[in-house]
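queue> pop job 88
queue> type: inverse folding (structure -> sequence)
queue> payload:
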């Protein structure tokens, strides 16, 4: 004989529906969890990447702020250095002008010794034998004169050269005046 299912009552129906709901819910939950697993994994990866990027962006913002401050400071330093360079350039020009003026003035006060080469260390000057003691005397071609070797650095040498020039100029002046006087007498 065939068994008939038990009569359908409200309670039986609720129990059957509850079993069906639980099994369907379990299946749907398992299926949903299986479908969400790759999505959850991707979301975790994205969350990690976003956290890293947030940290990097924060560091970059700090570095950018620091660099911006440094650039501002360097800009101010450049302005200061340019103004100092302008002042130094003006001061250099003034100093060059002062040096040129001093050189010109010192050249006006220099003694000119004409006819003496600059590349020799000593120069022989013919002087009378009554030279001060202490100079090197060497016999000369003249019996009454001796050659005295004087160094170009000595003050005595300069005085002797000036005196010799003075004597030569006086002699030339006398010769010139004599020839002029003879020309007027004619």
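queue> result:
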């Amino acid at each position: 004989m065939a068994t008939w299912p038990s009569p359908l009552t409200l309670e039986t129906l609720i129990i059957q529906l509850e079993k069906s709901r639980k099994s369907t819910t379990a299946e749907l939950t398992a299926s949903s969890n299986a479908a969400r697993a790759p999505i959850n994994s991707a979301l975790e990866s994205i969350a990690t990447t976003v956290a890293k990027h947030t940290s990097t962006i924060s560091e970059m913002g700090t570095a950018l702020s620091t660099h911006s401050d440094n650039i501002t400071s360097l800009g101010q330093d450049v302005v200061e250095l340019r103004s100092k360079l302008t002042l130094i350039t003006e001061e250099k020009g003034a100093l060059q002008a002062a040096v040129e003026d001093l050189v010109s003035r010192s050249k006006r006060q220099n003694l000119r010794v004409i006819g003496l080469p600059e590349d020799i260390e000593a120069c022989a000057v013919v002087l009378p034998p009554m030279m001060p003691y202490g100079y090197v005397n060497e016999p000369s071609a003249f019996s009454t004169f001796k050659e005295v070797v004087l160094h170009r650095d000595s003050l005595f040498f300069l005085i002797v050269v000036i005196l010799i020039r003075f004597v030569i100029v006086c002699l030339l002046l006398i010769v010139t005046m004599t020839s002029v006087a003879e020309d007027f007498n004619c």
